[in-house]
């Protein structure tokens, strides 16, 4: 990779990469981005007809970082020089257009054996603006994995689609663009005795490359405005029990993407020392068993049953899970099956989508593999997903085929696999659909109705449901993008989506745990802003999910200690040093900013305490408090674009004297990712929290924190989801004993294009309410929960809610959060 001779990324520390793993207190690390590089309607026009690119100044007037200057120069180079004379495809009109594709070459190239193709000069400088490289031609299914040299570090990049006439693969995490970058060379191999032909090579953006340069990610958001005062009150008198869960249950949420034993033990020890555990990984059946990774026997098609696997293979094959460190030997984790063998699958597409007539054969193979792993090694994953991201076309071919009910087939296949696995290994939990792209409002909530029907059709066989959530690329400054098409999950959509799924499960008496087996950001690249988008997304997702312990059984951000197959990935905590093996020990690696995610959260744990936020919408700020002995920790995630001054000095309960207050910060400032491990605070009246920052504040008191009561928080959902508010809509919520409730909130999930132009109004048992928060009318695509405080005097055992009509409004779900107080602590840590 470039800049191999650059200094340690920890500027001014005077430490080697290995030494810098020991994090000193009260230190500030500045992460140098140059060192840590990391048929719709289409119109095709020649690049010579392109107008010059347009710069759209963000509302924030803080200076553009050095990285921003470099990326703006690359953007200008793309539109004013590189694309001239090239075929370019656009989506949209005028200055709001997005560059969809740029053709790099129309030369016919015949391939055999080892393949090496150098892309045109300048490609390396603009590559980071795109998502994919596309090869078009003939027999491209004969090509193997792709190394985008030198930027993929000798590994292979992720394949998106591989068919005879099209091969689409992701660009690796590119460094910040500069004029001196080495050219891009595509390296691969043709299968032995096979040939292929390339007729076109193109860069593809998936429609996410605006002609206007987006400078928002390269500014320090909120730096040009005073800090917003916010108060967070912590209740030390009560423990908080969320539907019976009083303990944080750290093991559910502080995971990294791996199965035990899949990397060098030194990385596992490093993660374990920071109280993180492996959480999830994919097992690809075709490459893992049919192609194989060694010289041993390979899985073959049954010679007497075409389309079925010869399961006698498992009588001779050792399927034991890899050896791991002692601390991880008993860890519960998730695995996901994918890439079912080609001999039983739809040809070329759908990542090994089994043919309908071979659903049973595929299920038998899955069950045999899992059972053999348990028999040979004594353990297997607790949770097995049937097929990765099977809600999208690239993973489940039947979504392409209009003659099939693709979701019914998906449910049928999940049921077949679950039955087969449960027969052989009853203790294993089987689930899915391992959803991608959880934009459930699409097609007037048609995608949600598909999800709901999938749950209905699998209710008797699956043990859990699983989903993935990713922030899109270019979503830094989400708060500033509310009226510019932001449709990510971190400003209310995540909560509204999970509430809607839960409401349907409750209504159909089919309540199962949910696993979030991937979450993070789709942002590629290894610049500081790229790293920051991933880091803020990891923390924001995990923070939101940890406050749903009754609903979420596992949450795994897409964060790795290392990747031997893609060593320079922007999602890894460590990359190899110059000349080191990608399979070596930790001592041969250097940290990236991702390592600081593990440091930020390394000791956040304890019993829950109630918190109350005032001064900022809860959609923009999350706060969680936990205690152990005389230690109090508060995690704060600010998803607004304003910098905050948070007053944490207001405690309910006995007066305790803080002997120490420390703040651990991971933030973005002046074009750098900054990690500050232990900033000492003289008091807690003005704790700084920057835009999109997650911070952990720790108090040490002179005596034990001793709550004497428990605040019990329970959730009751009304029947009815994704209901259009084209007329007055009625909902009913039944509770056991209204007289025992201390306080209550009505939560109405809403979706509306163009935000709320008028209040959401209605009645609760005949009493009028309305909600029209200022932030809610500023969205192009609003999907979020609205909170309405309900006086105790309004509550009844049978509660009738009516919501008045509003054009364009969809009520995604309705539920009641009710708090009651017991005079004793909950005797159970969690359920």
Automatic annotation (TrEMBL):
Pfam families: Porphyrn_cat_1. One of its GO terms (molecular function) is beta-agarase activity. Keywords: Glycosidase, Hydrolase. Its EC number is 3.2.1.81. SUPFAM superfamilies: (Trans)glycosidases (SSF51445). Residues 627-718 form the Porphyranase beta-sandwich domain. Coiled coil: none annotated. InterPro entries: Beta-sand_Porphyrn (IPR040527), GH (IPR017853). This is Beta-agarase.
